[in-house]
Design goal:
Layout: H1 8-31, H2 37-49, E1 52-53, H3 54-61, H4 65-77, E2 81-85, E3 93-97, H5 99-119, H6 125-147
């Protein structure tokens, strides 16, 4: 990259490149573990937020309840999630990670933590903080643009 101020367009190009590289790494990493990115998203949500109903899970993932049912069927068949009757609502089902699901998500988290260590090695705490704050602002603006119908 040339020295001097960087334009907003160049910065956006770099973000697109970053998204492409990270997306491919993620797809490859979950595929090596026999998952799709959608199934990994279900496991990740349960790992971070704990057991929840299928409806809440669908809302969190931004998918239809029918779609989440298909994902859960496959994950349950692979022994990664458990579905149980809700303790107070007989119409609802609570989904949680099985022991195998917890082990797999811990493995995924370990891979993520290892990548973070490699990517940010040598950055000072101040640099890392500024980077994180800047990315947060960009993400907020992107979400705002998406909900407003685009830029």
């Amino acid at each position: 990259m040339p020295e001097g101020p960087v334009s907003a367009s160049v910065s956006l190009d770099r973000l697109f490149e970053l998204a492409e590289v990270l997306g491919e790494m993620m797809r490859r990493g979950v595929a090596e573990r026999g998952l799709t990115t959608a199934r990994a998203g279900v496991l990740w949500a349960l790992f971070h937020q704990g057991p929840m109903t299928q409806r809440v899970l669908a809302d969190r993932l931004g998918v239809t309840p029918r779609n989440v049912t298909g994902l859960l069927d496959a994950l349950q068949e692979d022994g990664l999630v458990v579905r149980e009757a809700h303790p107070t609502d007989r119409r609802a089902t609570v989904v949680s990670l099985s022991a195998a699901g917890r082990a797999l998500t811990a493995e995924l988290r370990g891979g993520r933590d290892g990548l973070a260590a490699v990517l940010f090695d040598g950055m000072s705490p101040g640099q890392l903080d500024a980077f994180t704050v800047s990315l947060g602002r960009v993400i907020e603006r992107l979400r705002g643009a998406g909900s407003a119908g685009g830029p």
